Amino acid sequence: EIVMTQSPATLSVSPGERATLSCRASQSVSSNLAWYQQKPGQAPRLLIYGASTRATGIPARFSGSGSGTEFTLTISSLQSEDFAVYYCQQYNNWPPLTFGQGTKLEIK
Amino acid sequence: QVQLVESGGGLVKPGGSLRLSCAASGFSVSDHSMSWIRQAPGKGLEWVSHISSGATIYYADSVRGRFAISRDSAKNSLYLQMSSLRAEDTAVYYCVRRGSEIFYFMDVWGKGTTVTVSS
């Protein structure tokens, strides 16, 4: 089973600033990685797939990068609606599909 | 409009059973791979089970032998039959659609249904 590790667990950033979230895989997942955003009381929403492709309707301030075992989600200029929990998920080797434990992005 | 709506959650005693349903609209569940994902209170996301368009089925080790995934094309619905429930099965259960036939990211999520296992 591929273990996904996200860091930091909590990230405090001011609105308008850049946020950088990290995700590491225990073995290479190529570019088979997705990012999701989850707000309190809501289902997760797909942001990024293929490590760097934005899903339909996702603003350009969200970008993904990386391949192999190291991945990054960058939010270029934080808006109030971006404060949420973010999860990465690998789909290179499955079953099982595996998620990181999440990074909570909070207002500084 | 593409949508998934789960139902069937509730309070059940340890050892009991429950059947979750997921009604799809805007697409056919038979034409897509589907999964159930769960989230324990205050915790992260855990994949539970998968059924492909060709009816290949997989389960997480934590539920294999206790849960059964199925679908009904006529009702355009996905199901999760859960038995021998344990306290650690307490979670919000999401029905999700696979976003690509090649890659397994999840592009459509239901709002979830809550399962509580407690005496």
Fold and architecture overview:
The complex is a heterodimer of chains A (108) and B (119). Chain A is an all-beta fold and 108 residues long. In chain A, 0% of the residues lie in helices and 49% in strands. Chain A is built from no helices and eleven strands. In chain A, the strands form two sheets. In chain A, strands 2, 4, 5, 6, 9, 10 and 11 form a seven-stranded mixed beta sheet that branches. In chain A, strand 4 and strand 5 form a beta hairpin. Chain B is an all-beta fold and 119 residues long. In chain B, strands 2, 4, 5, 6, 9, 10 and 11 form a seven-stranded mixed beta sheet that branches. Chain B is globular and about 40 Å long. The mean pLDDT of chain B is 97. Chains A and B meet through strand 5 and strand 10 of A and strand 5 and strand 10 of B.
Topology:
The complex is a heterodimer of chains A (about 110) and B (about 120).
Chain A: E1 4-7, E2 10-13, E3 19-25, E4 33-38, E5 45-49, E6 53-54, E7 62-67, E8 70-75, E9 85-90, E10 98-99, E11 103-107
Parallel strand pairs in A: 2-11
Antiparallel strand pairs in A: 1-3, 3-8, 4-5, 4-9, 5-6, 7-8, 9-10, 9-11
Chain B: E1 3-7, E2 10-12, E3 18-25, E4 34-39, E5 45-51, E6 57-59, E7 67-72, E8 77-82, E9 91-98, E10 106-109, E11 113-117
Parallel strand pairs in B: 2-11
Antiparallel strand pairs in B: 1-3, 3-8, 4-5, 4-9, 5-6, 7-8, 9-10, 9-11
